[in-house]
Amino acid sequence: MRILHCVFTRSLFGSERYAADLARLQRQMGHEVHIAVDPRAEVQTILSPGITVHRVPWLARRLRLKRLIATLKPDIAHAHLSAACKALGAIAKRPPAVATLHVGYKPKQHARLDGLIALTEGAAARIHGYRGKVTRLWNWAPAMADPGPEARAAIRGELGVGPQTFLVGFVGRLHPSKDPQTLVRAFRAAALADSMLALAGDGPERADVERLAAGDPAIRLLGYRTDAPALYRAFDLFVLPSRFEQVPLAVLEAMQAGLPMAVSNIESLAEFVPAPPAHLFPPGDHGALAAILAAERAKGQRRETWDLSPFDPKAQAARTMDFYAAVIGRP
Predict the structure, then answer these.
(1) Are residues 108 and 126 in the same domain?
(2) pLDDT, tens digit, for every residue of 41-67?
């Protein structure tokens, strides 16, 4: 099958990494895979060999994409995030097109497409009035390079803490949906002995997070990082206090790393994060999270075992191909 992925964001977060890894898996399955990107898109830097990249500038993007489709004649197009969904939906003569709901269903972005992949049951249940096909498929964590046994000491050395310091970690955008402020408030309220909070990521909430940290040396903002595997190796507890999510890759990556975990008790996270062993707390409740931090600090440094079999990449890629066939209308 000839597949065209469309990703027109310039950033490199979970949605872009999902698209790149799906393209890699489809190429390994023997399909011809293309990807249309913004010329400055960072997703280009993580694409596997054998995937053909087409750079489609913002100016006259729909027209350029229409011409690309006319030349390639793909069997199916797969859109990721709003700009790609809008561009594909506006093209009248195109192949069948699907989208993964990395955020949620929005009629203006998705109604003209032929198929939607919902990442949670809750997201699927909120699709109303849509006339195309819908399936529910799990996300997965793309394969991460092993950072090696020295990574834990290296990260802790960078932070200036010893091997026994209890390191609480966050990986994600500093965005209102992630609510990093609740984590900072909880960490300060818990007043844990010999502990540090490290937040990896950047975004519009950074200034507010810095204000709440108030120069506390036990709270470190690491900025945008490309060494997530090493960070997970160094952390002792992973926390995600989001107010809104689908299936964030950071949670699955933390599970892969065997980290104990505390996440907000929102619909999507509660759907796939088992509690116990995870701690679920009400979103925005820094007091409840502070109590969890204190309890985990009392347990000390340890690792957890998570069942990741439902999130097998090859199985989910195969199910994606089955969905393509259903949308196209052929086996």
Answers:
(1) yes
(2) 999 999 999 999 999 999 999 999 999
